[in-house]
Design goal:
- By secondary structure, this protein is an alpha+beta fold.
- The chain folds into two domains: about 220 residues, no CATH class; about 280 residues, Beta-galactosidase, Chain A, domain 5 (Distorted Sandwich), CATH 2.70.98.
- Helices cover about 35% and strands about 25% of the residues.
- The chain contains twelve helices and 18 strands.
- The strands form two sheets. Strands 5, 7, 8, 9, 10, 11, 12, 13, 14, 15, 16, 17 and 18 form a 13-stranded antiparallel sheet that branches. The chain has a five-stranded mixed sheet with strand order 4-3-2-1-6, with no helix packed on it.
- Helix 6 packs across helix 9.
- The longest helix is centred in the C-terminal third of the chain and has 27 residues.
- It starts with a helix and ends with a helix.
Length: about 550
Amino acid sequence: METQKIILWVALFFVLMLIWQAWQRDYGPRQEVAAPAQQAGSADMSAEIPDVPSAAVQEPAGEAAVLRTGERIRVQTDVLYLEIDTVGGDLRRLDLPAYPVSLEQSEVPLRLMGDSDGQLFVLQSGLLPGAGGGGQAVDHHVVYSSAQRDYRLQEGEEELEVRLEWSGGDGLQVNKIYRFRRGSYSFDIYYEVVNGTSGEWRGHLYHQLQRTPPRESGSIFTMHTYTGGVISGLDAITNEEVRYQKIGFDDMLEAPLSRDMKGGWEAMIQHYFLVATIPGQEEINNFYSKRVEGSRYVLGMVSKAPKSVAAGEAERFGFTVYAGPKIARVLESLAPHLELTVDYGFLTIIADPLFWLLQKIHAVVGNWGWAIIILTFIIKLAFYPLSAASYRSMANMRKLAPRLKSIKERYGDDKEGYQRALMDLYKREKINPLGGCLPILVQIPVFIALYWVLLESVELRQAPWIWWIKDLSIKDPYFVLPIIMGASMFVQYKLNPQPPDPVQAKIMMYLPFVFTVFFLFFPAGLVLYWVVNNILSIAQQWYITSKMEKSG
């Protein structure tokens, strides 16, 4: 039966796609993660410094350290806990107090950036000398001083400024300034260059994200999302717009990036969260990536045109950083296409309106679980005509089941005769064998888009539904929803016309059990959607089938 075959292949393809995706993440080739050294060693640091796109610019000599550590400056705002190192003024640690590690550890904030426990994720920046002036590089290896070791955004204050100072001894002074805002995961980093020398100062600003790949965890059943680099900008040579390009760790190793682009941004993203650096949107920067000693990867940018400060003058220039959750409406306001880091894949054009509708429903009902259920109802209602056509076709095929079996027995191994007899029967009864499948195929893009919406939306992280479901973003702790989903699939199997091929019939019968095993480990929000969708489909199919049987 052609309809059953197509449904079977679609289902098997979906399962195989999930297996392949999970296998690639868990068992595919990947780089070994080396623990970053925290104290002075013997490594050459010159590989960490970007190549400034000017033949006259000299790169500073390597230093005898991997990641030197000086004194730590602790900063606390209402939404961020940070540690800044006096070496380079690096951002070495960043916690998100509004996003606990887990519900069981509600007092422990999620650590988005850090330089301990064998994992490294830091933000570095600096100034490299330009042609004709600049002298010493004020890069991420110089040591700054600070008047305080602790900064806190006080009640009633809207901004907090952390000021680091460095002096070259020749009249040049550079202040590195962090400026934080209340309620914001974005902040600015400025360089204030006070030129007390007798000549013009010229230099290139760079900033880069350096990290080791995260430790892999979970099993083949665990849902994984992309972790790695992403860039966006306007190609300075071809004027080609790069809306969203992934630069994975393997890419940094095998084909290091070097591309001049105007505006844009760079980011390291992971499930639910990201860190992005955003330059002035009229600036041209050279975007670069590289692998440095061990398994440390760098994604950064350095200004093409040098900044300049006349003798006796002072100038300020810098960039914006976002370090926090992937909230599309916030990211959209910061830079063009930054909201694409909420990665819905190639079905973004469908996923965006679905999430918009899900948010609107949540604003009314105040619970993401009920919002998912209501959204499923709306989608099902929108596709009612297509689903009804599909179920009517299946009901007609069900009526023909005894005759199909008889034809199968009559022709035996004569496949050509069997197909001819089938086509004659369909023609006499005016039945389209694909009528039950094509409407389902039309709905598949919507189902896949919603799948990614529920998987990617940080709003569902640690969001409760009812009773035992305390977090829609992780598996059902008691596997109630997956078991209900498997049972609903089995009911659907019973309602559908049975294939005449016994092997095919057995596969269709086992499919609900296969899906149940996979869905045991899916986020509860995804399983909830499938459960509700299946129950609505069963109700609709039963109603249409019984109505057609009564009408004869």
